[in-house]
Amino acid sequence: MSKNLKCFDRAIEAIRRRFPSLRIEVGTNADRDPVAEIPSQDGLDFDVTISQQNDDELHLETAGFHSEWFPCAEADKFDDFLEAAGGLLGGRYRVLETLAGKTVIESHLQRPEKSGSWTAIATWSSLQALIPGIRRQRVVRNQGWD
Q1: Which of helix, strand or coil describes residue 55?
Q2: What is the mean pLDDT of residues 61-79?
Q3: Share of the chain residues as helix, strand and coil, in percent rounded to the nearest 5
């Protein structure tokens, strides 16, 4: 097993320890990359996917957010990923989505600050975010664990 694949296994193991009743379905995708599907369930308000791609990236994804942390073998990147995944699953972190109509065109994974404000720690956007138009924002945040 490669050092990087161990990052995925270690991440899933850490999440299982923190959230022991969380149902996590581990498998592989079409490219044979490891994937953990975490479906909406008691304690989790939305689906989350964790995957390892391109040998050195850990990915965190919800319906309207996707980001990667790499190289995953670096301790600080791995720790940042675990903090982000645990914060999102536990409800401490949130995703602020920007929508054009019903389509998410940009999203920010945010952590709370002591001042009461929120700081983006990861961002995703589509090319559609560059096109002017009417926008609205929506907060996606788990309410079930922390």
Answers
A1: coil
A2: 95
A3: 25, 40, 35
Residue 119 backbone phi and psi in degrees, to 5: -120, 130
The reported pTM is 0.90
- Calculate what percentage of the chain has a pLDDT beyond 70: 95
Task: Return the number of other C-beta atoms located less than 10 Å from residue 83's C-beta.
Answer: 15
CB 65 within 8 A of CB 79: no
* Residues 119, 22, 142, 26, Cα dihedral to 10°: 60
**For residue 5, what pLDDT band results from cuts at 50, 70 and 90?**
low
Integer angstrom CA distances of residue 83 from 32, 77, 79, 109, 130: 26, 10, 6, 11, 30
Q: What is the β-pairing status of strands 118-125 and 103-112? A: antiparallel
